[in-house]
Amino acid sequence: MAQFVGTVIGTKMNKTAKVLVTRMVLYNKLKTFFNERKVYFAHDENNECARGDLVVIKQCQKMSKRKYFTVSEIVDKVPRMVDPETGQILVQDNRE
């Protein structure tokens, strides 16, 4: 079972979070490291994730054509301020 830590980059789909995972990979020929990035679609049952959150995703049974991970834990939530009258998000730190 694969498990990755990544940043949520999109939540426009219902019950799905788009997660960017970055990891260091060794290039054997030059003996240097470089960043490898990949985007995964993860199942978010309660739509709890927001753009910029740091999450842990785990591999699970395939749910759709491209979705075979699920959000197991939200490690760090992005600070946001919501207007109590209208319910709109006023301030959101994207950390990007």
UniProtKB/TrEMBL annotation:
Q: Keywords, A to Z?
A: Ribonucleoprotein, Ribosomal protein
| Coiled-coil positions | none
> What is an annotated GO biological process for this record, any one?
mitochondrial translation
GO molecular function of the protein, one example?
A: structural constituent of ribosome
Ribonucleoprotein keyword on record: yes
Its cellular-component GO annotations read: mitochondrial small ribosomal subunit
Which Pfam families does the UniProt entry name for this protein?
A: Ribosomal_S17
Q: Gene3D superfamilies from the entry?
A: Nucleic acid-binding proteins
**What InterPro entries does this protein map onto?**
NA-bd_OB-fold, Ribosomal_uS17, Ribosomal_uS17m_metazoa
| Family named by the database record | Belongs to the universal ribosomal protein uS17 family.
Output this protein's name: 37S ribosomal protein S17 mitochondrial
Species per Swiss-Prot/TrEMBL record:
Desmophyllum pertusum
